[in-house]
Design a protein that fits this description.
The complex is a heterodimer. Chain A is mainly alpha-helical. Helices cover 60% and strands 0% of the residues of chain A.
Chain lengths: 157, 685
């Protein structure tokens, strides 16, 4: 009995978790003004569908995503700038809705992690290359005779 | 066969009627036996290598073969259960259905958690056995240690399967029919996506085993580098194919033609790919110049570590949704523990022994060595960026109590610059000789390509209607890299007339060809991505049956579309709403397309089947939507410029990998096996 419940639960989960596959933006949502529509699409691609796995509202078929798309278009028709629309969505749905994280607070770590790591890696790598260079003047350490023979055997194959 | 019935651990199995039903028990038994063999293969050779006991070391090879045969049997038994729709197995009931086409009954074996783990250990055992079969020329202690470490990884996963994810569990009351495989997985692209990905993930276990064995051994030399390279190359090759298959599947199946989403699960496969690419390059430096040894070891450990982390991300569901961790904490924690033990253990060993790896070669600041160091820096840091971005939502919630998302806009911005930098330096670095090079000489041969790249970039800039610099940049990089690869290959043919050079080109080692081809493949993929992202055209509208409309686009990409009719069609295990659509160029019929919406009643799930007219310069991609209240249907038409170049580039990269693998210089083992046969003048067996 318990197993049957678990099985049906697992199945229900697998359906609920499955990616939404029907296409997103429907014809009735499209704005008449192509410039506004393009801005709406650009903004939609940066906003997360709150109930989906990992999709923007532009891609999602969920009802909530449709509501959010309509909301974005409503704000644009009211004359909001892109930044104002984003702020409006964040005020209503929270930071979670942003696919492009802000640079506020700890998020700065996320944005600088790559460049900082690059600088560190270039430092270490550069130091290594430089240290090998200083050795150029010295003669190369010769292989031991055993190593020499082994290398030769390998190269001859 | 009554003796094995008690092995099944679901209590009474009184309905076992014949041989047929006990094959699953035999499979289960074989799996347990394989685990036992793996324990022996882990302990005995490692001890033997430490004590220099030849007999103990020699157990590794037969053990590796036996382990592979046992898991192979176990996997075959599970496959048999799926093929014969044995619904007394819980796994078959949950993931199969008697109406399912045979192909998907077979692929259903790994279309679930338990089966995919069994596939994982099967491949692990296959790689271990291959190392035993082809590793005759390895030093005995190194070979014993490699196989021992490989078996240790196996033991952890056997325990995982047997304790938490047993595929052979029986149901006390078997149902009449199964619950069907997720319809999204009933697709040729996705059916073969996991095996390739696993071949890649698990292939990196060989590099890991070699790295750990070398650390225990306390020595890394040119021969070691030469040994690690083909395994890494094979793993990278499989990862490339696996990722490309997944991306291609997403493109045609998910209904809007995206090809990469920076989803945690995708990132999980991309991170090992980046590190495998880095490893592949620095193993050359170890082989040719005996420097970068400890870095190569570290990279080999990390590359497999990322494979394990990838498995953790995919299997635990921790990142798909932050709260899904509770779904299966036991499994997630177990994989995390495996990852911690192996990566942590290897890194500890590394910290302790790495200083023994003394670099030998010296080289100038401008040299092939330095270029490969730069390559490794860019690949490793870009992998770090993906890693950081993938885990950041988790970290932000744990440490800063912020629920946030990190999506494609972040990765596009943070990751792409590294790839651009990599491609800018690639042709120059590839031209440089070892030890000491000069920029002027490397560039001297590349001026023509550079001018061509910039000219074509400028042409693209003037032709395109939009203002995005993406397409011109993509064009410049692609021409630069592809042209650079061609020039490099040509220059390797030496001096002399065209006839001489062509003759010498054909005799160039496979490695040289492989390098040029793989680099060119990367250029082609880049161009495909840039063109698709920059120039895609989308048309969303309500179309009446019989209506014809024009999809407005730049000259060569403008098409007319006519919705002829929409019909209801029944498939083998689904019901379809199928549109009949003609695509015209002017008055000429270009293609007849039939996009579908399917409902799989058993799984209760709808899928969208886009219809695509593939072309070299564009895909016409059509999706049928819902019927509209005022009559007509929602139709989405996309023109996707150069989309196929993305996957064509991946295929070319893989072909490059194959050329390199076929290089005689890398087949150390094959050569070693031939040599004694020749010497004896007799067949080997």
């Amino acid at each position: 009995m318990i197993r049957a419940v678990l099985v049906s639960l697992a199945l229900a989960l697998s359906i609920a978790m499955g990616p939404q596959i029907l296409h997103a933006v429907t014809p009735d949502e499209v704005l008449d003004d192509p410039v506004l529509e393009e801005r709406a699409r650009g903004l939609s691609a940066q906003l997360r569908c709150m109930v989906c796995r990992n999709e923007s509202i532009d891609e999602s078929n969920a009802d909530l995503a449709k509501d959010m798309r309509l909301l974005v278009r409503e704000r644009l028709l009211e004359g909001d700038t892109d930044a104002q629309v984003i702020d409006f969505i964040v005020a209503r749905y929270g930071e979670y809705a942003l696919l492009r994280p802000t640079t506020e607070g700890a998020n700065i770590l996320l944005w600088v992690a790559g460049p900082v790591m690059l600088v560190v890696a270039l430092g270490i790598g550069g130091g290594f290359v430089w240290s090998r260079r200083r050795d150029v003047a010295r003669s190369e350490a010769a292989l031991s005779s055993e190593e020499e023979a082994r290398l030769k055997a390998l190269l001859d194959e | 066969m009554t003796g094995v019935e008690s092995v099944g651990d679901t209590g009474p199995v009184s309905y076992l009627r014949d041989m047929d039903m006990s094959i699953a028990e035999l499979g289960h038994f074989a799996l347990i036996l394989a685990a036992c063999v793996a324990v022996v293969q882990m302990v005995v050779p490692l001890v033997g290598a430490q004590k220099r006991w030849a007999g103990w070391m020699a157990t590794a090879e037969p053990a590796a073969t036996a382990q592979f045969l046992l898991v192979g049997f176990s996997f075959a038994a599970l496959t048999y259960a799926f093929v014969t729709s044995d619904f007394s197995l819980r796994l078959v009931t949950l993931n199969s259905h008697s109406d399912k086409p045979m192909l998907y009954k077979v692929t259903g074996v790994w279309g679930n958690h338990e089966g995919s783990l069994l596939l994982w250990v099967l491949i692990l055992a296959l790689f271990g056995a291959s190392a035993a079969w082809f590793g005759q020329s390895l030093k005995p202690t190194l070979r014993a240690r490699v196989l021992g470490v490989q078996a240790a990884v196996g033991v952890a996963f056997y325990a995982f399967i047997l304790l938490t994810s047993n595929p052979f569990l029986r149901l006390a009351v078997p149902p009449m029919d199964g619950q069907d495989l997720n319809p999204l997985l009933q697709d040729p692209g996705l059916a073969f996506h996991p095996p390739f990905l696993y071949l890649g993930y698990v292939g990196l276990s060989m590099a890991f085993s070699f790295a750990v064995a070398a650390l225990i051994e306390g020595r890394v030399d040119a021969a070691w580098g030469r040994w690690v390279r083909p395994w890494t190359l094979a793993a990278w090759l499989f990862l490339t194919i696996g990722i490309a298959l997944g991306s291609w599947w997403a493109y045609y199946e998910l209904g809007w033609g995206g090809f990469w989403f920076w989803d945690p699960v995708e990132n999980a496969s991309f991170m090992p790919w980046l590190l495998a690419a880095a490893l592949l390059h620095c193993a050359i430096v170890v082989e040719k110049r005996e420097v970068l040894k400890s870095w190569t070891i570290l990279l080999a450990i990390l590359a497999f570590g990322f494979s394990l982390i990838g498995t953790f991300i995919v299997r635990s569901g921790v990142l798909t949704s932050v709260h899904a961790f509770a779904n299966d904490p036991e499994r997630g924690v177990y994989i995390l523990a495996i990852t911690g033990i192996f990566v942590g253990g290897a890194l500890t060993l590394f910290a302790w022994r790495a200083s023994a790896m003394e670099a030998k070669g010296v080289f100038g600041v401008v040299s092939r060595e330095s270029a490969l160091v730069a390559n490794n820096i860019l690949l490793a840091v870009s992998c770090f960026v993906v890693f950081f971005g993938t885990l950041w939502p988790l970290a932000a919630e744990l440490f800063f109590d912020r629920k946030l998302s990190v999506g494609p806009p972040f990765f596009d911005a943070a990751f792409t610059p590294f790839m651009v930098a990599l491609m800018v330096i690639l042709p120059v670095g590839a031209m440089m000789p070892w030890k000491r090079a000069s920029f002027a000489r490397a560039l001297a041969q590349l001026w023509g390509v550079l001018v061509l790249a910039l000219a074509l970039g400028a042409l693209t800039w003037t032709l395109q209607t939009g203002t995005s610099i993406l397409a011109p940049v993509g064009m410049i990089l692609a021409v630069w890299v592809v042209g650079g690869a061609a020039v490099e290959l040509w220059s390797r043919a030496g001096k002399g007339g065209v006839g001489d050079k062509v003759r010498r080109l054909r005799r160039l080692p496979g490695g040289d060809w492989g390098k040029a081809i793989a680099h060119a493949g990367m250029g082609i993929t880049t161009l495909g991505i840039a063109a698709l992202v920059a120039w895609e055209v989308e048309d969303i509208r309500i179309a009446q049956e019989g209506e014809r409309y024009t999809v407005e686009a730049y000259g060569p990409w403008q098409y007319d579309v006519r919705l002829n009719a929409v019909n209801r069609v029944e498939g083998p295990n689904y019901i379809s709403t199928m549109a009949s659509i003609d695509v015209f160029r002017g008055e000429r019929l270009v293609a007849h397309l039939e996009p579908e919406k399917r409902v799989y009643p058993v799984a209760g799930m709808p899928t969208t089947e886009a219809a695509i007219d593939n072309g070299i310069l564009r895909d016409v991609y059509i999706v049928i939507g819902d019927p509209q209240q005022g009559g007509g249907w929602a139709v989405r038409t996309f023109i996707k410029p150069m989309a196929n170049w993305i996957w064509a580039g991946c295929i070319i990269m893989s072909i490059g990998g194959l050329f390199s693998l076929a290089d005689r210089r890398h087949r150390v083992a094959a050569g070693a096996r031939r040599a004694p046969a020749r010497a004896a003048g007799l067949p080997a067996e």
